[in-house]
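ok so I'm stuck.
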Amino acid sequence: MISRRIIQHVDLDSFYPSVEIRENPKLRSLPVIVGADPKDGSGRGVVVSPSYEARKYGIHSGQPISRAYKLCPDAIFIHPPNFGLYGRVSSEVMTLIRSFTTKFEQVSIDEAFLDVSDQVKNYTGAIDLASKIKKALLEKEGFTCSIGIAPNKSTAKIASEFQKPDGLTAVEPSKVKEFLAPLPVSVITGVGKKTGLFLKDKGIDTIGQLQKVEGKTLVRYFGKGGVWLWGVAQGLEQIEVKERTTRKSLSLEHTFEYDVDDLNLVIGKMKELADHLHKRVIMNDLEFMKVGIRVRFSNFQTFTRERSLHNPSNQKDVIIEQTRKLFTEFEDRDQKIRLIGLRVSSLSKHDPQRKGLDRFLTNF
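replied:
not stuck anymore, here's the structure
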């Protein structure tokens, strides 16, 4: 049975660097790297996102910033990342994309799915609509994007990566298996290094080879996940495009340039992270019920701790107070610290009436 669904996956091209370039047009056409401070090649931390000009030098997200500096020392390094700005711009961009459909699902700061089955009659209409979205994003927001069109979410996402940047790839239902067959299994969301190595050990490198494996065999390999993997490979995945509920958590981390044992320096960085994290909470109109920290020492031992609040909060002072209490457990350890991270979770939408109620209950 041929699917009548028409799904689009919109992926903004190199979003963080693109925002920085929009803020400073002099950066256009230059290799821009958003991430940690490279410190002339001795910096700690990683690349968060490189522009496409930077990618030509072999630079990619998650790469050690020291390696990126060696590959392209003349790049423009933006540090620290301006997450507050990126979040505000993302909100504006997603509002624009959302206006093109009644079925919308934002999946990250720079990606969204649209189900346009009720708005267009065929793939010609879907391509025309995608072109309008691309034009609107460029003219109104100054960004290019890549769009994949297919009968399901997984194929549409893979298609959006096919001609980056500024690409538009449509895969009609009768062509899905043919389109997927030559691609490596690593293009499937969720197939990471471990799963890829497992499949390779079974002689499976491409989706075409995966298509030849019986579903019951994949279930034996991966449990229920095998059913999903079989559906993706066969082009039969039918997960609905659905507006997501409030995200479960927000977090930020900092890797120090060198392992530190100066508690004042660590606490100062925690306060800085709390400030940035609080801005993201306010920007997304959220409240949190849990506050946590992550501490990694020089030997890479990593600990996480968390505290629950009595009432939801959106206050920066609460983040600082609770993370400070959690950190006291580690203050007397005779080890240097490599990384510190802060997290708020059990999120919900901010209730502006709660502040007055809390004050009333306090005075009651």
